[in-house]
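pinging the channel bc i need a second pair of eyes. not urgent but kinda urgent?? the chain im working w is below, pasted from the shared doc
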Amino acid sequence: MTKQQKLLTFTLFLLTFVLGTSEFVIVGLLSDVANDLDIAISTAGALVSTFAAAFAIGTPILTAVFSRYSKYPLMLALTAVFIAGNIITALSGSYALLLVSRIITAVVTGVLIALAMAVASETVSAERRGTAISIIFTGFTVASVIGVPLGTYIGQWGGWHMSFWFTALLGIVSLIASSVTLPKGLKGTRSSLKKQIGLVTNSRIIIAFFIPALSIGATYTVYTYLTPLMQEVLSVPDRYISLVFLLYGVVSIFSTLIGGKIAAKNGIGKLRFVFLIQAVILTSLYISFHSIVTGLISISFIALAVYTMNSTMQLYFIDLADQHFPAAKDLASSLAPVSVNVGIALGSSLGGFVTTNMELIDVSWVGGIVAVAASLLTFISCSLGQKAVSIHVKKLSA
């Protein structure tokens, strides 16, 4: 990559770091929010699920609407709205206002992620796109390792409102960096509603959409209940559980970077086997959790596999749109992060069902089955891709 491309990639990495910190920091502050607003912890927890739902529903709709506008002013405007959303959250004295501010922030977050990926795919050379997008995705992982603990500490020190003044400040830093670095020549693409609908109703797009959802769902079937697993099955002392999550976060950074390497050449073909490996890792918990050492090794491998599909799937959506629906590329860029949020909801719900009706450790093999389903869908997607290439070649030779 050129120096300018590296600077742009870092700016987009900074943006996703800020977005990730703002999205996830609320998890560490739920008790503080509940106590301050005098609401039940389950009501405070609805802030997380509402954010995910707003992200999943609003992102593709607004990305399609905004795709006609030039990316430079659009991204700066949306970043300004993101900052405003965090300021409103910081000023919230009621649950209703807090909920509205989080919904606004969620929708803007989703559109900004889609635009960041679209900018990277349009400005970086084809052979470097996978690396650039994996670095941008790493911003979320670094947010969970650094941004969220720091934001949580600030909230515990100065009150939960202070955490969102902190994320608003990070947003301002990102806005300044973006105003200097983002290319000004990336025009929007006028697209009819018919073309946008054509993208999301295309059979290959539909199949591809559920690949990351199932892969992340497989992990979150286990990850959502990792704390009780460590407490009740591994007998890890409570004081060390945060360190295990820190280990998980650090290792997951490498997962994203490995994903960039996988995406460099025939990434979708490689993912067929990566998901089978993921299935083995998740299922192995059933045996490895009889020992703290082997249990921690399995947790590390889960983290190493969790984000390997990100870059490949992001590029896969963009490339499919480029081939069949070029006017809907921005919408295509939003599908991977939306799918991931759907997968988080799917996995956490499935894990809840398992822990309610079966043994806690059974989340391991159930997660493994979901990963196998992700692999099967990837095999189908690859087969359809090969068939499409074969048909195209026949048409050219005719």
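so The CA atoms of residues 390 and 396 lie 10 Å apart. and The chain has two domains: 1-188, 192-398. — does that match what u expected or am i reading it wrong
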